[in-house]
Specification:
heterodimer; A: mainly beta; five-stranded antiparallel β-sheet; about 55% strand; B: mainly beta; 11 strands
Chain lengths: ~110, ~110
């Protein structure tokens, strides 16, 4: 089946630093999604990307849909303590609804 | 608008017991799905449904049953619980082509 490689697995940064994480796939996706999960809660959608090459921002977050349709990255600028959590990428291919998730990036921000 | 509601939030079972995890959404979404989340494994798809009366298997369906008698509800059944089914279970829903919305999860322990 489809597999997503998400890196890094974890990051420990100082408040104010910028963060970058990415996902690569062995298959082409039509949609890339980035979710954040806080402890004890379900994943919450951050950014959705629908077109190869698309660059989309949501506040301090910026994500891009790779031109090959096999990768995506998420940047967080000027990190703050509430950015702590697990970030997941997810890809959706073809006409079906199914998502394939990366294994997540655990972000820790030191105040 | 309650979104995706999962019950119970926590459950402890003995090996061999059966139980049903409930999921309900009030957004009239045609697509609903169940995932399990295990440390280091990300979210893995168990079963999904593209509409009332239609269900299909995901990546890890063994040991789980589902049904979709209404648009709103998508229960997940464990017929004979096993310790390997200890996990956090998430339900999600969406319109076709739209990002999935997640519930807050059910934390299940099998002793």
């Amino acid at each position: 089946g489809q597999q997503l490689n998400q890196s890094p697995q974890s990051m420990f940064i100082q408040e104010g630093e910028d963060v970058s994480m990415n996902c690569t796939s062995s298959s082409i996706f039509n949609t890339w999604l980035w979710y954040k999960q806080d402890p004890g809660e379900g994943p919450v959608l951050l950014i959705a990307l629908y077109k190869a090459g698309e660059l989309t921002s949501n506040g301090r977050l910026t994500a891009q849909f790779g031109i090959t349709r096999k990768d995506s990255f998420l940047n967080i600028s000027a990190s703050i303590p509430s950015d702590v959590g697990i970030y997941f990428c997810a890809g959706q291919g073809g006409s079906n609804y199914k998502l394939t998730f990366g294994k997540g990036t655990l972000l820790t921000v030191n105040p | 608008n309650a979104g995706v509601t999962q019950t119970p939030k926590f459950q402890v079972l003995k090996t061999g017991q059966s139980m049903t995890l409930q999921c309900a959404q009030d957004m009239n979404h045609e697509y609903m799905s169940w995932y399990r989340q295990d440390p280091g494994m990300g979210l893995r798809l168990i079963h999904y449904s593209v509409g009332a009366g239609i269900t299909d298997q995901g990546e890890v369906p063994n040991g789980y049953n589902v049904s979709r008698s209404t648009t709103e509800d998508f229960p997940l059944r464990l017929l004979s619980a096993a310790p390997s089914q200890t996990s956090v279970y998430f339900c999600a829903s969406s319109y076709k082509g739209q990002p999935q919305h997640f519930g807050d999860g059910t934390r299940l322990s099998i002793l």
